[in-house]
Structures are given as C-alpha cells and as structure tokens.
Design a protein that fits this description.
Rossmann fold; Fumarase C, Chain B, domain 1; 7-stranded parallel sheet; 36 helices; 11% strand; binds iron/sulfur cluster; Helicase_ATP-bd; metal ion binding; isomerase; ATP-binding; nucleotide-binding
C-alpha cells in the first residue's frame, strides 16, 4: 500500500475542492498530500492560472483532517487495548506517521546541528580603561571631528540652557555578570524594569489574554510575499468548507493592521513599529513603577495602563477573538474593519489567536525571520509550513538578515550618545558608563572607516579592491567580519554583550528621548530666531540600524560580508557612505525551520532551477531526498505560442546585450516589429524591457523617428510609471481601453485595435499583475534582463555561490557571460568576477535573469480559456545548447516546462508573422 493510500487502499479524496478538479489539479493535490505524508522538504511547481492556491488549500487541509481522524481512531484503539490489558500504554503504540516522524526528526536534528559561532575577546573592565582605547578618542580623522563639531555648532543647546528632567532620561544601573569572560552573557539590572528589544518587530507587549495553545496541535503555516497575495489566499479559502471548519488567522505588519490614527499617520513602517512599541513601553514603564512600589509582591497588570487607547480594554480584545472564531476566515482588510468597528487593536487581537489556530496565514518575513517568529510566539514544532511564491526564496530569506547603517545615521547616533554622555556622565553607574563609552568607540571607528580615505593600510586590507563607480561617485570594498573588526581595532569588544546591553538597558530609548527633547527645545528656540535646526530623521531608527549592524557582526565569520561604501572626495557633500552586512548563506537560517517543522513545502509557478535552491538552503539533503513535482499548464497546447525572434522584419538581427543595445538601427528594427504586431495581434500587447532607462531610450528613439506615430495609429500606448503608487491608475486605463475596444471600438480613433503596455522587468507589473485575456494577448520580452554586473553586492553573492562546496573557487578559466563586453568602470569589475566563475556563480547570475523572464511572461494566460503569444526577442534565445557563445547553459533551458515544450525557434521573421496570424485566427475561431 502506498503511503498516499488510506487503510482501504484508496487514494485521498479532496472533497473540499469546490468544483470538479482538472486532472492536473488532482495530480498537484496528490503530490502535496504525498509530500506531507513523507515530511521533509518538497518543491511543487504549478504554472499560474492553474488553480494552485485552491489545490494547496484542499490538499494540505484535507491531510490535516485525515491525520486528526487517524489519530483519534488510533487513540480509541489504544484506549480499548489499554483497558483490555489493564496496563500501561506502550510507547510503540504511537501512530506510525508520528513515530516515524519523531525518529526522522531526531536523526535530522543530529545531522543538521550547526554550532553557533562563538564570541571574540571579551569586554574586560580593564579593556575599557584609558590605555586600551587611548587612541580611540583620536580615532576620528580630523575631517570627521570637524564635521561632528560642525554639527554641534549652532545646533547644540548647552546643558545649562536646556531645562530637562534628569530622572526621565536616566538609565537604571546595569552590569553584566562575568564581565570580561566569554560566559553566557547573563546580565542584571539593579532595579526591576522591562526589557525592550531593539528589533523593530519585537514586542514589549505582555501577551496576556492570548488563547491557550492546544498541546501538540497540528498547524499549517501558509506564507506568501505580499499582503495582496495573502488576501487572494483567503478569498480562495472562503470558497471551501475549510473556511469555517478550521480556525484561521491572518497576520501582518503593524503598518497594515494599526488603527491608531496618530500612529498610522507616521506613514513609514519602521516609525509605526517604533511608535507602537514606545506606547507599549509607556504602559510597561507604568507597570514597572507599580512593581517597584509593590515591595516584591506580585504585579497585577491591567490593560488600562496601556499607552495605546486601542489596547486599553481587555474585554474588547476578548470579544474581537470570539468574533473572528464566528466569522470564519478573514483577511487583513476584514480584521482591520472589525478592529475599527470594535475600537480594539486588530494587530494584537489577531496575534493572540495564533496559539489556538489551525491555519496561520502570514507574510514571508514573519515566518522566516527567527526574531519575528519568537516575538509572534509561532511554534513550528510538528507543523506544516507552506511557502508560496518561492521562486526567489533564497535571496528573499537572506535579505531579511542584511543590515545597513548610513553615514548620516552613524553621525546622528554618535552625536546623540555623546550629548547624552556629556550630560549624564556623573549620574550614571560604572556599567552604563562603560557600555556607553564602548558604543562611542564603535561609532567613531565606523565613522572613520567611512570618512578616512587617506588610511592606506585600511584600504589595502580590503580583500576586494575598491572600484570607483562613475555613475554614483562612490567606491566599494568588502571584508569578512573578523577582518573588518581587526582593521577597525575593535576586535577586543564583546559584541554579544554589547548587543545584550542595547536590548536590556533601554539605552536606545533614553538617548533618543533625550535627543528628541533637546531637538524640540532647539526648535522652539529656533522659532524665536535663535537657532536653526534641521533634524528630521528618527534617532531611534538610526540607533536600531546600529544595533542591527552589531547583531550582524556576531554572525559566523564566513556567513556574510561587510560592504563599505564611501563617497569619493569630490562629492563628500553627498554624505552617501554606508556600511552594509550582506548575509550570504541561508543554510543555518533554513535549518532552524526544518528542524522544527514536520514538512516544508515550497510552492510556486516556476521553481526551477531547484538545484540552486537546494545548494543554498538545504545542501545536506541529497537531490533524491528532495521531492520535486511539476505539473503542466491547464490550457491546451494551441492556446500558447512561444517563439524566439532573432531577426526583425527587415532582416536586422536582435542583440540586446550590454554592448549593442543602444544601436539605433536595432531599436528601429524593434519598432518595425512592433508596428507589425499591432496589425497581427488583437487587443493588448505587453512589452518588457530590462530597465526603466532602456525603456525610456527606446521610447524616445521611436518618438523621434516617427515609429511611435505609426504604432499609435493602431494601438494606444501606455508606459509603466516609475512610482509604484501610480501603476494602478495606468493599468486601469490600459484595461478600460481594451474593454472599450472589445465592446465596439474607440470613438475618438476607430482605427485603433487595442493598446500597448510598455513595462519593465522587476517593476511592479512584472511581479504580480494579472494580465489575463485581452490585457496580455502577446508578451514581448526584449532581450535578456541580466542584472547589472556593476552591482557590488550581487557580485559578492556570485563569488560566494561560486565557492559553495568548492575549496578553491576563484581559480577559474576564462568563460564569458554571454559575450557581454563592458565599457566602463565597475561593470568591468563585475564582468571580471563573472568570467572567473567556473560553475555555480555564473549559473546563479544566469538564473537571476531567467527567473525574471519567467516571472514576466507568466503574467499572461491566467485561466483555462485564456490564450497568448510569447515572443522572446533576442538572438541569444535562439541559440542551441551547444552554441559557441560560451554561455554555461542555454537561457531557454531555464524556461518553465509548459513553455519550453512548445517553444518554436526560427531565424526567419516571415515565419514568426505567419505563425502569429494562424494562432490568433485559430483562437478566434474557437470562440475565446
Ligand atoms: S497597539 Fe495596535 S492600534 Fe495601537 S499603535 Fe500598536 S498597532 Fe496601532
């Protein structure tokens, strides 16, 4: 009996599916069900428009229900046997799947144990004496010192002018145990207080009132990238019986959930988080004071002490929870609406349902980031984790662990810490004084790194030679963590303890609050014409950026790189330097999820190449241990026409590579191709360009040559705006134009037969817009959208990936990257890196390009009756796999199966035109 079959030998039935499923949907549901039976990792691919979401819901939730039934019946049998025996339960009597799972998990846990990197040299009390850092005060170059002084001049209101209450800003005494030792970093504050994390997503809330976790409850976590994708999931869920049968909760960010208008109007997600946490902090401070007064007695916390009015009434939160249980699956909008009508916070309300929920629907960030999981109280033990839209999972995951601090942010933090220390130095205890001085030392060291371009030894120590960018007048270099710390002479600082101090001492809030107070006093003085003050940035956000950077520096040496971006001397006015930590390996991060969950499913429209994902996220799994399933498209073959177009109507070949894409002749040829398409293609044509700049160049050239005028006779032209917020408006007009044409033509121009949408790969339209039916009858991909080789950070990733599993990665032969020839500065450095790659690095670079192509062309054909032509315009699409172009693998080998299998390649433009005519004629005759 296969695992997928039940006791009677029958395959699972997906009764929850609201319609009669197509065979590929049944195949997909069976594959998912099987994956959940097996546990571990699986990757399931199903093209967009094939009902993937509904299939996921009906298979995964059916599996949960089946497991529960099985568990119940097995418990009944056990209970009967137990009664019959009159003895103890035998541990062997566990359900097979549970026992196998536990055994497997234990094994996996052994295999995957990854030792955490340990700390560097400790902060000895003695280490912080004058001698150790005698030079630190002088670490700042003269320039930086002057600059800091300039900041202070005219802005500083001396402490004897500012009338501020010392008490309000004073820190409670702090000391960490075993100072100077590597120890466990335990610390204590002399008076009781509330610890507050610096992470913007962590909480100060007390969590009271949460529903109890039902022990061992099997939960499903479904996550996707955007809130609109999560809403679509809930819409699909509501079509099924599971909407009411399961306890469902949707989680999201404060930005999406907050109903406190005062907080919401801050606009920026980080500031909304901060403000909400500050309000919780005020609540907790009150609690803390009561606690201190209580002489050791137990504290009774009351919501009445909450800083946010939307959290004051516990009863309302309780009522909110019971409403959700009654109303079935609700998306974020519904929850916000409910929260507003009840005047209680939907953010905390929905979070409190998590322990009792069967299905938790949440964005990537909340599930993949460990700190978010902890702050939300997500327990992945034995759960099912389904990650949708997983086509870029490795990069998305890693970017969550990046951190960055800019020069202005550093200057701001440094300035405020100094002012704070100046003012309170004599009132602070030795623990606080020592840590604050350490923070100042670190800030100065970072500042010097970003500003002091004269320090040759520092520059020489960079592993990668800095290359000046002609475009942004900045230079970049990178280092490993230890190298960075040594070069700054801060390797003796115990960053783990320092980070702990930032979390526990409340220093960030005290310094920021003091700074804000000073600034507001300055402003009031300035309004009387005394002092000018231009401080807009939030010191707390800047402080958080510093704390995040310090946290990154506690990672294992080889896990990531520090990127140092300095502005060149000629443009120091721009103050654009920054330090960025780039996380390069997702293995450890992902193993934390796999160690807990029973099964992790990566789902998406296009998941290829799976090998890259395996190597970057779960390399310990052998390829055969990874369950991969790919289903074909729901539409019949005659509904798709994918063609490579290597030549235009006048025979000019298309080569949109870096070196030749500006060719006027070729741009005109592309224009001629489009003129022909306006005749052959009904309704909407969507063009995808590699960048906004290139789209602009082509558009202007067509305008100047008169080609645009010819195009406009047949189709209206719309262009994707750079601002995401303007996209909706353009799309609406584009759709309305096509709808009007379908309904009888445009009155103002009856000759027009449709519209053209000129879009950009990586822009909003390419990422998640549904271009079904008339909106996307023909998708034209112009060239191969390779990411810019001048992207320093990308090249760091390429180098790292090239080195995966290879002890000597960069001793490579000269392989070209699709024969791209570079002309300038840092692009040349990028191409040098790519040429030196032998295998994985270059493959990764090519995968990025083809994933972007697949995303863009996947916007069309969204349902069974849809049809579209897909034109891949570039000679490089037409080459065979053994072509002499030198590409590691042919780009079309990375197309999704359902396109690859039907791809037509021809050198003759006449063939393309003929095929298009036949294709649209045939589909018109089918009546679609
Ligand atoms: S508690 Fe809720 S409503 Fe109040 S500020 Fe925070 S997120 Fe907004």
């Amino acid at each position: 009996m296969s695992k997928m079959e039940d006791e009677k030998g029958e395959a699972p039935k997906f009764q929850g599916f609201p319609y009669k499923p197509y065979s590929i949907q049944i195949d997909f549901m069976n594959a998912l069900y099987q994956s959940l039976n097996n546990g571990g990792v699986s990757m399931l691919e199903s093209p967009t428009g094939t009902g993937k979401t509904l299939s996921i819901i009906c298979s995964a939730l059916q599996w949960v229900i089946d497991q529960r039934h099985q568990q119940k019946s097995e418990k009944r049998v056990e209970s009967d046997q137990h009664c019959a025996k009159g003895g103890e339960f035998d541990s062997d009597d566990e359900p097979d799947w549970m026992r196998n799972f536990v055994v497997n998990k234990d094994d996996q846990g052994q295999d995957k144990k990854i030792k955490k990197s340990k700390i560097r040299v400790g902060i000895g009390k003695g280490n912080f004496g004058r001698n150790r850092h005698a030079g630190c005060g002088e670490l700042l170059s003269e320039d930086v010192e002057k600059d800091c002084c300039r900041r202070k001049e005219g802005k500083n209101v001396s402490s004897d002018v500012v009338e501020l209450s010392d008490k309000e800003f004073l820190l409670e005494e702090y000391e960490s145990e075993e100072e100077g030792a590597l120890g466990d970093g335990k610390s204590k504050r002399k008076t009781l207080g509330v610890s507050l994390s610096s992470s913007s997503d962590e909480e100060g809330g007390d969590g009271s009132g949460e529903e109890d976790e039902e022990e061992g409850k099997l939960k499903v976590y479904f996550c996707s990238r955007t809130h609109s994708q999560l809403s679509q999931f809930i819409t699909e869920l509501r079509k099924t019986v599971f909407s009411n049968e399961m306890k469902v909760v949707c989680l999201g960010s404060r930005k999406n959930f907050c109903i406190n208008e005062e907080v919401l109007k801050l606009g920026n997600p980080a500031r909304i988080n901060e403000r909400c946490l500050e309000l919780q902090k005020k609540k907790n401070d009150k609690v803390s004071k009561i606690k201190n007064l209580g002489a050791g007695g137990r504290l009774r916390r009351t919501k009445a002490s909450s800083g946010c009015p939307m959290l004051r009434k516990y009863k309302l939160q309780k009522h909110f929870r019971s409403e959700i249980s009654q109303q079935g699956a609700m998306d974020i909008e519904d929850l916000v609406h409910l929260g507003r009508s009840m005047k209680t916070c939907p953010y905390y309300g929905s979070r409190s349902i998590v322990p009792a929920a069967d299905l938790i629907v949440l964005p990537y960030q909340s599930l993949l980031s460990k700190s978010s999981r902890e702050s939300l109280g997500l327990n992945l033990k034995n759960s099912i984790v389904i990650i949708d839209e997983a086509h870029n999972l490795a990069d998305s995951l890693l970017s969550m662990y990046d951190s960055k601090i800019t020069l202005p942010q550093l200057e701001d933090v440094h300035y405020h810490i100094e002012k704070y220390f100046e003012r309170f130095r004599n009132l602070l205890g030795p623990g606080n004084r020592r840590y604050i001085q350490t923070l100042m030392v670190i800030c100065r060291a970072f500042l010097q790194t970003l500003c002091n371009k004269e320090d040759a030894s520092f520059v020489d120590s960079c592993q990668h030679n800095a290359k000046a960018s002609e475009a942004n007048l900045a230079s970049y270099s990178s280092m490993a963590i230890n190298e960075f710390l040594f070069s700054l002479n801060i390797d003796n600082i115990n960053l783990i303890k320092l980070r702990q101090y930032l979390n526990e001492s409340n220093i960030m809030h005290k310094v920021s609050a003091y700074g804000d107070q000073v600034v507001s006093l300055q402003k009031s003085l300035a309004s009387k014409g005394t002092v000018e003050c231009g401080e807009d940035a939030s010191t707390l956000s800047n402080f958080r950026a510093l704390a995040d950077m310090l946290l990154s520096l506690t990672n294992k040496d080889g896990d990531g790189r520090i990127i140092i971006s300095r502005t060149r001397p000629a443009c120091t006015e721009q103050r654009g330097g920054y330090l960025k930590y780039v996380m390069l390996t997702g293995e450890k991060i992902f193993s934390e999820i796999l160690d807990e969950a029973h099964a992790v499913v990566l789902a998406g429209g296009t998941l290829q190449p799976i090998e890259e994902t395996r190597e970057r996220l779960f390399p310990w799994l052998l390829p055969k241990q990874l369950h991969f399933f790919s289903c074909s498209h729901i539409v019949p073959p005659e509904s798709i026409l994918p063609v490579t177009v290597s030549h235009g109507p006048s025979g000019q070949s298309f080569d949109f590579s870096y070196s030749s894409r500006s060719s006027t002749k070729m741009i005109q040829e592309l224009g001629l191709l489009l003129c022909n398409l306006t005749v052959a293609v009904p309704e909407g044509i969507v063009l995808f360009f590699s960048s906004f700049d290139y789209e602009g160049l082509v558009y202007d050239a067509w305008k100047a040559s008169g080609i645009l005028e010819r195009i406009l006779k047949k189709k209206r032209v719309f262009r994707e705006p750079r601002k995401n917020t303007d996209v909706e408006c353009v799309l609406k007009e584009y759709k309305e134009t096509i709808d009007k044409l379908s309904a009888g033509g445009l009155k103002d121009n009856p000759a027009q037969t449709g519209a053209i949408l000129s879009a950009v790969v990586g822009g909003k339209i390419s990422e998640g817009i549904n271009l079904s039916d008339g909106m996307g009858r023909c998708i034209v991909m112009v060239g191969l959208p390779y990411p810019s080789p001048s992207d320093f950070e990308l090249m760091e990733r390429v180098k790292f990936i090239e080195g995966l599993g290879n002890p000597n990665p960069m001793k490579t032969s000269n392989l070209s990257v699709n024969d791209e020839i570079n002309n300038g500065g840092d692009a040349k450095a990028g191409f040098d890196v790519l040429r030196s790659c032998r295998h994985r690095g270059k493959e990764y670079y090519e995968n990025l390009c083809m994933k972007a192509v697949n995303q863009s062309i996947g916007r069309a054909i969204r349902h069974i009756n849809d049809y579209a032509a897909i034109l891949l315009v570039d000679t490089r699409y037409a080459y065979t796999s053994d072509s002499s172009k030198g590409s590691f693998s042919h780009p079309t080998s990375k197309l999704p199966e359902w396109i690859k299998g039907r791809l037509v390649s021809t050198d003759n433009y006449g063939d393309v035109h003929r095929m298009l005519h036949q294709f649209f004629k045939h589909n018109k005759n089918r009546g679609f």
